[in-house]
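Worked Example 4.2. Read the sequence first, then its structure tokens.
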Amino acid sequence: MDTSPASLLRLLVPKVPFIARTALWHTFWLSPTSSKWDLRTEITVNLIRSLLDSPEPTPLLKQQTWSLKDPGIKGPMWISKVTLPKPQEQDIRLVLIEAIEHLKETEGTYTTPAILPVEAEWTGHRANVRHDRPRLDLSEAQHYERLMGEVTSPVTILYFHGGAHYLMDPASHRIPASRLAHHTNGRCLSVRYRLSPQNPFPCALLDAFQAYLSLLFPPPDSFHNPVAANNIVFAGDSAGGNISLALLQLILEINRSVTRKTLAFHGHSIELPLPVPAGLASCSPWTDISRCMPSITSNAQYDYLPPPLGKEAISRFPHDEIWPTDPPRGDLYCDLSMLDHPLVSPLAAQGWTGSCPMWFAYGEEMLADEGSAIASLAARQGVTMVWEQYEAMPHCFFLVLEHLDVSKHAFKNWVAFCSKVAGGAEGNAGAKLETKGTWFAAKTSKETAVDVESLAVCSQDEIKERMQSAKVARMEGKEGEAKILPKL
């Protein structure tokens, strides 16, 4: 992502009057969030909201290209760029398609993806260097060797970046990935999964599945040795949280329904059932592509995410080389007929039994209801579920508002969960965890216990009905795009 001073200046100068007005309203307690936010938060959230809801949206390819600009590597991080080769065998694609078909409740359209090499970045902490210290001129193998020289725990975080499925990559998320590696004393493998709309569902999920198996069973000439599942944590933010949960649900579904006994992968014969990871830890996971839950509107005042767009607004959205697609598709990530599929929208999943422990952190944001529904269902099905929600905080607040005490607290808890579930050399440390829900008050971080099993604001039947209704409305053209077309 281009965060150069010149780029930021071009972005912010036209917004100076808006920033001044926002500061004035906050100072005189005229803003509805003045009692919950400090001035910096007020300006940041309102500024992002104004950029995402611009009356003159930028074409998708230009947005995507801007978000993929590499900021460079410097400071206290080790980065080793790798390419995970594609297996000659086709088994991972075949079991993915089998799982997709088995989870279908209605007809749905998707394109079977090709298996391709997957790029990724090993990320670790580089101690005792300034933030402006340049990257050493070494080979990628040497960078990995240096990285591993500072790793003192077995924690391995498989990280999936956010970006609404069509923006950003590991380069944009090097700072949070390196911080996770630093504070867990471990390492992250940050995956450059295929982006939409050029590569719709299930391309990104196939890449994620290939990355996980590559940790367990390294392809030839890999830098890393085999990593035990009980030392791996799936992690991600926003759309990356979606991929994390979809990958976990895919593994559970393979173990539930796939009839084969082995899976061929780079010459390995992997016995089924597949091992689940030690844990899943996600910041504001986006679990409902249909965006049908009540908090989409009820929590909008605390969030910067754009509202759902009407059909007329969609018709005016600028066309470019990647949008609309050919043939036309009603959603960036998938065909509209797949909106309520569990591997597209994990909110639709009915079964989490057999899952690893999970940790969710949300603000009082537009996506909160979909996360609480999954947490509630998983807890009722016997999954260890740690739920944290922070009053008046927006989407991915502890990655966006790092200066806040509540953000530091949330990030610390993210690290603690990863270390606890995956830090043991033997066995799964997740057994030490208990299901727990906590509400954190704005500014003070005062904690109030909540019952995770009763978090859901809608029953499973109501959720199913809402998702189906939203899908039908989109297919009939009564509702437009939602988060999938932020107007940067």
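Now turn to a second chain, presented in exactly the same format:
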Amino acid sequence: MLYSSEFLPFRISLFPTITIAGVRTPTTGPPLLLLHGFPQTHVIWHKVAPLLASNYTLIIPDLRGYGSSSKPPSTPTHDNYSKSAMAQDMVSLMSQLGHSSFYVCAHDRGARVAHSMCVRFPDAVRKAMLLDISPTLEMYAGTNQAFATAYFHWFLLIQPEPFPEDLLSAAPGRFLEYAMKGRHPGTMFHPEAWEEYERAFAERESVRVACEDYRAGATVDLEEQREEMEKGWRIRCPLRVLWGKQGVVEKIFDCVNDWKKVCDAEVSGEAVDCGHYIPEELPDVVVKHVKEFFVEQ
């Protein structure tokens, strides 16, 4: 069992078609929202969360479309999986749990949701910690052969339905092995965590959602980020960014400066000695930065 009994399961209905599932702790300190990425679930935080439970009130959900949360239908514009829609989910979830403002630490796709939340709900996010990403628009603009090779799934999953859904559904486990372990051969996942990732991704609905998430990333999310730039909407809260020394962000992007381009507050961070899956590879490092950065003023 990856989470002890102090982590309480929840299922909360936010809108008529959206229910968010996850785990949380009793109120013990300032609220901290932990967001996972693709193709994972809230389980990614199983090494980090127990080390923070005595300091923070933890809320650890599955994003819409992932794990046990609702999987709304696909649309031609992919709006149901825009990061702004997912950001609205998270702000509504936190509000229902009694938290009008909070800290957020987010990895991968979850960090893209956190980016949107910081821009569109500036009063909700006190500080944000983003793991192993640069802004979506920056990463597409900086695409080269090395990036396209390493992040091949960005360009596979955005192809029109049902082509990528058919491919991945034929061998979902093989895709996970290659996409998650193949790019980072040294990464070790806890057997129970890996079983959960395989279980969650085995359903065709989960594959459909993943494709929609990335289609949104290549369309509506870019449109929204361009709109935000035109309107002068920027991140107003302090950011801490961490990225893996062995990963793509380190090799191709300039993470701190990329975030400074879209943030008016202080941006700090560093490369850490691991690959992409920082919460599972270096949980102690994540915890150290969380306790250092998310401090009540």
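Notes for the reader: The CA atoms of residues 84 and 116 lie 6 Å apart. The two ends are 36 Å apart (CA to CA).
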